[in-house]
Amino acid sequence: MPALAQEGRPLIEITPLQDMERLAQEAQGLTHDAAVSWQAKAELRPGSGAEPDVWLHLQASVLFPLICQRCMGVVTVPLEIDQWYRFVATEAIAMEQDDDSEEDLLVMAPQFDLLAVLEDELLMALPLVPMHDECPVAPVLQAGEDELADEASEKPNPFALLSQLKKNNS
Ligand SMILES: [Zn+2]
């Protein structure tokens, strides 16, 4: 991360959803080309200590297939991440400062896993109750109702039909 910060250039990547196992498990009907577009940019800012703080700006977007809870069809939900983090040296500092910080804190570690952080954010961004704005089933039902209405209007008047039957019986 510090190397990234010194360069000051964003890291722009596209990661296939299949590479994010936990996230992929939540997807309904995952296509092979489903991928997360993301970019990470580090920034040095004056901090409380002698050394500047390392901040990270993470942005990501993905069209994520879920099951609509209204029509039970697949609904593609756009997930967007736009999050700032500040790196701290140790877990202890993170625990200490977390309550007072508006930004999220990350612990600077050699095994720091940016993709895991991104995957966590996307998992948290999943809607609890995914739904279409307008379910595709609704227009179909509408069409069905129209058809029924048309059929009804073409049907003979039931009273006319009744008198027809009476005539035949008599
Ligand atoms: Zn729906």
What does this molecule look like?
The protein has helices at residues 2-7, 21-26, 91-97, 114-125, 137-154, 158-169, and strands at 11-16, 35-45, 53-67, 74-88, 104-107. The chain folds into 2 domains: 2-133, no CATH class; 136-170. The protein has 6 helices and 5 strands; from the N terminus they run H-E-H-E-E-E-H-E-H-H-H. The chain starts with a helix and ends with a helix. Strands 1-2-3-4-5 form a 5-stranded mixed sheet. A hairpin with a 7-residue loop joins strand 2 (35-45) and strand 3 (53-67). Helix content is 36%, strand content 30%. By secondary structure, it is an alpha+beta fold. Zinc ion (ZN) binds at residues 68, 70-71, 73, 75, 131-132, 135.
List the helices and strands and how they pair.
Elements: H1 2-7, E1 11-16, H2 21-26, E2 35-45, E3 53-67, E4 74-88, H3 91-97, E5 104-107, H4 114-125, H5 137-154, H6 158-169
Parallel strand pairs: 4-5
Antiparallel strand pairs: 1-2, 2-3, 3-4
State the gist of this model.
By secondary structure, this protein is an alpha+beta fold. It is built from six helices and five strands, in the order αβαβββαβααα. The chain has helices at 2-7, 21-26, 91-97, 114-125, 137-154, 158-169, and strands at 11-16, 35-45, 53-67, 74-88, 104-107.
